Amino acid sequence: MADRDYGFRTRAVHAGNVPDSATGARALPIYQSSAFVFDSTEDAAARFALQKYGNIYSRLANPTVASFEERVASLEGGLGAVATSSGLSAQFVTFASLAGAGDHIVASSNLYGGSVTQLDVTLRRFGVETTFVASDDPADYAAAIIPGRTKLVFAETIANPSGDIADIAGLADVAHAASIPLVIDSTIATPYLCRPIEWGADIVVHSATKFLGGHGTTLGGVVVESGRFDWSNHNFPLFEETVAHYGGLTWYGNFGEYAFLTRLRAEQLRDIGPALAPHSAFLLAQGVETLPYRMQAHVDNARRVAEWLEADPRIETVNWAGLPSHRHHERAQQYLPIGPSSVFGFVVTGGRAVGQGLIENVNLASHLANIGDAKTLIIHPASTTHAQLTEQQLVDGGVHPGLVRLSVGIEDADDIIYDLDQALDAALKGA
Amino acid sequence: MSDATTADTATVTLANGLTCDIPASSPLAKLLKSQRTWVGPSAKERLGILRRAKSVAIVGASPNPARSSYFVGTYLQQSSSYRVYFVNPNATEILGQPAYPDLASLPEVPDIVDVFRKASDIPAVIDDALAVGAPVVWVQLGIWNEEAARYGESKGLTVVMDRCIKVEHARFHGGLHLMGFDTGVISAKKQVR
Q: Which parts of chain A have pLDDT scores under 70?
């Protein structure tokens, strides 16, 4: 082992992938196996009791999945990680481990729609209440916290399509003042652009489907924890109570700083079951190898496209925080000095009809409901997800009829701009 | 290509025991700048300690399967090649082996004395380790006595403190990796066995 702190790019390629001890395979082996044999009954008993490390069953842990987990943990600067089958399940196991019936969550209202419904519909049905804060001021989050009941604060590093940036350090202070963790969804930022743990966040969740995997091929999620939060602060009694089904251990007493992630794997993955498939872990881990290079290209292209759009009279507004006109430009420079990723909304003049025409006339940008692909992706909410609403209903609901969401890819920036330019021309002719 | 680090950085020790440079103004930098002044062996040095050792004595070992020392004992017995000894004057047998009343009663001088005792007991354990000639005292995770650590070092002992020997062994031998933790190990050589 070299006595050196390796850099981000080196860790993106190597972390979690020491050559296989059995075969020497240099690439990450895909352990496509549901279960793993025990050495003896004594060995089996010790593995099941968590007294030693070892594979049992791929819902709990799998060697290929472990490589992806360690790689992301290393890049985020976390203690470790637990991978899941999707970003939404990464969030769900996190929320389920920390909050139960009667508990409360404080979340940004500026979240991905699936996250809003997970909190507002499903978790509410299970007795977990969420207060959504429609503000970017940490003081408003503090005001929403109910002492004793609130178990976590949740926000996204970069929201979309608003392009808003979370004040992670401010939110961390608010959460820590209430002795609860700050959970950050950093899907759009990725650890190349922002590492929330360095700003005080305790738990980072990702939809690995997006930039981490990077190629729009594979669903996956991951939870990273800092190892710094004090799980013995009595706000989370489950960490200090005796666990009968694991031989009377206590999560905090036996595992200390490793308690959260050990419990997340041994309880939430066991009981909820959203395991990441080994083949998916291979594809995602391979994607992460080029994360620094792809993210730099995404950001460089986003800057070109956003500046071009902002200067164009056919466009009303551009919500990319890398532009000085964005209300969170300064915040973006603080938290995301390289650039605030490449997913943002913009508003075309002419409303719904022009937005729809733009989508119908793009030739390079792909019309689909995803973000964080190497390819440029585009969607127009008013003519797709919100098509049943009238223009007035759209405005009332906060979705501008002319709003288009773009996920800028890593093609030639000139080609992306050419495509948007010709599509805007065609849309205006047709409108 | 622009770089993720800025000019004003602080070098901090992360939870995985490695160090890295992060913005000096960030909350993590402030948080990790703890009051502790004693610095134990680096990750590479800890790996060296673990690789040189052939025997480990667990002082304060418990026969209770729920206790951390039982987890560590089970792990070392089954997942390492160490000769493992249990020291507890109030027990007769732990994990199928005899429990010894003290370090002096062991059949050999242990290469590592692994300690599960409260912080105020550490100086006495250090004296016991010195008396039998053990070279390393490893004070377990969650136990911190800086004065005792400096005292041990002044007598020529190698001291590791507030670290779990199971976690550190597993960091370099694959166990920690299997559970998705960051081992800090970057290597193009096969995993050490």
A: 1-3, 397-398
Q: B186 touching A, CB under 8 A?
A: yes
Task: Give me the residue from A18, A242, A338 closest to B185, CB to CB.
Answer: A18
Given a cut of 50, whether residue B3 has pLDDT beyond it is: no
Q: Is B91 contained in some domain?
A: yes
Coil, strand or helix at A81: strand
Is the Cβ of A368 closer than 8 Å to some Cβ of chain B? Answer: no
**Pairwise CA distance, residues A165 & A136, whole Å:** 8
CA distance A135 to A162: 13
Alpha carbon distance A78, A257 (integer Å): 11
Q: Are residues B28 and B54 both part of a single domain?
A: no
Alpha-carbon span B74 to B82, nearest angstrom: 12
pLDDT tens track for B110-133: 999 999 999 999 999 999 999 999
A177 contacts chain B (CB < 8 A): no
Q: Which of B74, B175, B180 sits opposite A73 (nearest CB)?
A: B180
Residue B151 has pLDDT above 60, yes or no: yes
Question: Chain A residue with minimal CA distance to B47?
Answer: A1
Model confidence, pTM = 0.89
- Answer yes or no: do B15 and A262 touch at CB < 8 A: no
| Topology (CATH) of A8-15+25-288 | Aspartate Aminotransferase; domain 2 (3.40.640)
Q: Please report whether residue B99 resides in a domain.
A: yes
pLDDT tens string A114-154: 999 999 999 999 999 999 999 999 999 999 999 999 999 99
CA neighbours closer than 13 Å in the CB half-sphere of residue A409: 22
Domain of residue B7 covers 1-34
What letter does residue A378 receive in the DSSP assignment? E
Residues B13 and B82 in one domain: no
Q: Are residues B101 and B128 in the same domain?
A: yes
Residue of B nearest to A65 (CA): B180
Could B178 and A74 be called an inter-chain contact, meaning their C-beta atoms sit closer than 8 Å?
no
At A184 the three-state DSSP class reads strand
Nearest Cβ partner for A24 among B70, B172, B190: B190
**Partner A contacted by B71 (CB < 8 A):** yes
| Range A291-430 classified under CATH 3.40.1110.10 | no
Contact assignment for B190 to A21 by CB distance below 8 Å: yes
Inter-chain residue contact A228 with B15, CB threshold 8 Å: yes
Q: Tell me if B188 is assigned to some domain.
A: no
* Cβ contact, residue pair B15, A226, below 8 Å: yes
Going by C-alpha positions, the residue among B35, B47, B10, B36 that lies closest to residue B25 is B10
Give yes or no for B139 touching A (CB within 8 A). no
Gyration radius from chain A CA atoms: 22
